[in-house]
Amino acid sequence: MMRDSRTRPCVQCGGLTAPPDTDDYEEIRVAALREIAADLEGCHEDAWRLWRTLIETEVPFTNAINFSTALGVKEGTLQSRFARAGLPPLKKYLLSVALMRLAAGLEDSRRTLLAVVADLGWPSYPQSLARITHTTMGTNVADFRARETGRSMLLRLRRLHVIPYLAVWRDFRPLAELAPAMRRVQVAGSVAP
Fold first, then answer.
1. Considering only CA atoms, which of 148, 135, 134 is closest in space to residue 100?
2. FRET pair for 113, CA 20 to 30 Å: which of 65, 100, 125, 192?
């Protein structure tokens, strides 16, 4: 059976999907926000703000420093909170969202890999992209493009980083200020509890 080269396999039903729209990321962004919101129903507002910031940004965050700055929290504090809560490292979340965006952008066979990578703000293409797809997905860039879609990567993000940690996410306060008793105050060159 012949098919349009822009037609992609549907991960959920095993059939074929229609050619992608020109703004593939907008469609997957809306789906990601909707599905993750449903998964995390009842979570604290600051946890939801973290997810909204992660997904809604025009250019994906490439490192924890930029992401933490956008949230108004110190990078070390945010990474430490992820670790103490038992969540995967923050960089795994940043990478998963970036790969979701990459896959969504690559769904349009008319777009070059270089154009999609430029949209993502990955400056050291192709080395970094090859390394990322190999270490994260165990595949090369060409196979990643052929196999993955924005939808498949959203499902992967939820399967690896949301659903197994639902109880943690519902109680997680990644942006909350420390209680006064928890703050450390600098007093004359020493640290007082």
1. 148
2. 65
For residues 116 and 102, the answer to whether their CB atoms sit within 8 Å is yes
Nearest in space to 90 (alpha carbons), one of 102, 99, 80: 80
> What's the half-sphere exposure (Cβ side, CA atoms, 13 Å) at 131?
7
Identify the CA nearest to 27 among candidates 62, 55, 8.
55
Of 83, 90, 73, 86, the residue nearest 176 (C-alpha): 73
Q: What is the mean pLDDT of residues 22-39?
A: 88
Q: What is the pLDDT of residues 140-150, one digit of tens each?
A: 989 999 999 99
What's the count of helices (H) and strands (E) in the chain, helices before strands? 10, 2
Reading phi first (left if > 0) and then psi (alpha if -120 to 50, else beta), residue 91 is in alpha
